[in-house]
Design goal:
Layout lengths: L2 E6 L7 H16 L3 E6 L5 H12 L5 H25 L4 E4 L7 E2 L8 E3 L2 H9 L3 E5 L2 E3 L5 E3 L5 H11 L4 E6 L20 E3 H9 L7 H10 L3 E5 L7 E4 L12 E17 L4 H11 L7 E3 L6 E9 H17 L4 E14 L9 H11 L6 E5 L2 E7 L3 H11 L9
Parallel strand pairs: 1-2, 1-9, 2-6, 3-6, 9-11, 10-12
Antiparallel strand pairs: 4-5, 7-8, 11-12, 13-15, 13-16, 14-15, 16-18, 17-18
Helix pairs in contact: 1-3, 2-3, 5-7, 6-7, 8-9
The chain binds adenosine-5'-diphosphate, aspartic acid and magnesium ion (MG).
């Protein structure tokens, strides 16, 4: 007997028929003698529908109330799945975030999980019941409802898996694994049988939304194996695991594109010690993550400072730097929403020279201009115009021959 956490995404629970199919899968696992915790997302489209209603009433809705609003999506799907499981003879109890004692920090809309009462969940499992936990939500220390950011049910699942010491955490979704790139953009993308936590972390943070980045961080921290697989078939999916467990270390494992990025430039900033810190400190205080940063060569004691942030944070970031522009004596702020970041990722890049150069050549041959570059040991990212993003993904995917079976 093992303890399995299965997470089902929005498309997988998008209708009553799909919920019936999911219930059958859960029942199969349960009847094989395993203990099962199911984590569910809201039904497909529901989170967007709720967010849009809130935003229709207010251009800057109170974040606390937005969390109360969007958390309701997962409440509905958890209850529906529990009703159906009981209907087919599987004793099941649904739990909302606070009932599973998922305690988070107080950062509404992108809260981080602090603790989960694993032993309490285990003791319910010991009674032979299946648990269906509403994903994406928790409560802060004062009982306020919080949510974990878009795609946050992945993180709920991994955190619960770690808390109950599950044997495996299965992420059941509408694709049958992690692909070399988004299969909806590149038709010859290939399923990757095994990928390291580190590579997956990069792919997630670079735009592959198949796993929320925090879920990968947590899985890596707890060494929790993830199995990303289809909700609709029993085929083996992708195992996300330690690098030592990979059969081979490919140079480029995958390509990702992030179209939700915005470029901000502070123009003609005085170039002396402390100025850059005074720009980024208030952004950090506002919980805004800054991604690429470029500071131009100084001309007559002035320099341009360009950086990128996620679209979600862009309005707040722009307001902060506009305010700052006057106090640090810069000329002004320019904003460009028309940018996307394309990236290649692979642990094998550590030991191979020339991979970045090849990426730049492939983009150049496709007449795609590079506006900024950032690198780490295992990835290279280029900022380009949004309209070229999908084409760049295909060009890089083909150029690095990712569509070919690896043993060919
Ligand atoms: P869920 O609702 O199950 O959480 P998501 O829509 O969040 O599912 O994530 C699955 C989607 O992620 C896929 O349908 C696919 O379009 C997209 N995706 C992006 N990059 C990748 C990738 N490298 N491999 C697999 N899927 C990817
Ligand atoms: N329902 C939330 C969202 O759409 C959380 C999730 O699906 O993981 O972002
Ligand atoms: Mg998701």
């Amino acid at each position: 007997m093992s303890l399995v956490v299965q997470k089902y995404g929005g498309t997988s629970v998008g209708s009553l028929d799909r919920i019936r199919v999911v219930a059958e899968r859960v029942a199969d696992t349960y009847r094989q003698g395993h203990q099962v915790v199911v984590v569910v997302s809201a039904m497909a489209g529901e989170t967007d529908r709720l967010l849009n209603m809130g935003r229709e009433l207010s251009p800057r809705p109170v974040e606390r109330e937005m969390d109360v609003l969007v958390a309701s999506g997962e409440q509905v799907s958890a209850a529906l799945l529990a009703i159906q499981l009981n209907e087919i003879g599987v004793p099941t109890r649904s739990l909302l975030g606070h009932q599973a004692r998922i305690v988070t920090d107080a950062v509404h809309q992108k809260a981080r999980i602090r603790t989960i009462d694993g032993p309490a969940l285990r003791s319910v499992l010991e009674t032979g019941q299946v648990l269906v936990v509403a994903g994406f939500q928790g409560t802060d220390a004062y009982g306020n409802i919080t949510t974990l950011g878009r795609g946050g049910s992945d993180t709920s699942a991994v955190a619960i898996a770690a808390a109950v010491k599950a044997d495996v955490c299965e992420i059941c979704t509408d694709v049958d694994g992690v692909y070399t790139t988004d299969p909806s953009i590149c038709p010859n993308a290939r399923k990757i049988p095994r990928i390291s936590y580190e590579e997956m972390l990069e792919l997630s943070s670079l735009g592959a939304k198949v796993l929320q980045i925090r879920s990968v961080e947590l899985a890596m921290k707890h060494r929790m194996p993830l199995h990303v697989r289809s909700s609709f078939s029993n085929a083996e999916g992708t195992i996300v695991t330690d690098e030592e467990h990979l059969l081979e270390k490919v140079v480029v494992a995958g390509v990702a594109a992030d179209k939700k990025t915005v470029k901000l430039t502070l123009r003609a900033l005085p170039d002396h010690p402390g100025v850059v810190a005074s720009v980024f400190e208030p952004l950090a205080e506002a919980n805004i993550s800054v991604d690429m940063i470029i500071q131009n060569v100084s001309k007559q004691g002035h320099t341009d400072l360009t950086f990128t942030v996620s679209r979600e944070d862009a309005d707040r970031a722009e307001a902060i730097v506009e305010n700052l522009a006057t106090s640090v004596d810069a000329q002004g702020v320019t904003r460009d929403d028309d940018v996307a970041k394309v990236s290649i990722v692979g642990v094998g890049m550590r030991n191979h020279a020339g991979i970045a150069a090849r990426m730049f050549r492939l983009l150049a041959d496709a007449d795609i201009n590079i506006e900024a570059i950032s690198t780490s040991e295992i990835k290279t990212s280029c900022l380009i115009e949004t309209e070229h993003a999908d084409r760049a993904v295909v060009v890089l995917h083909d150029g690095f021959e990712l569509g070919k079976p690896r043993d060919a």
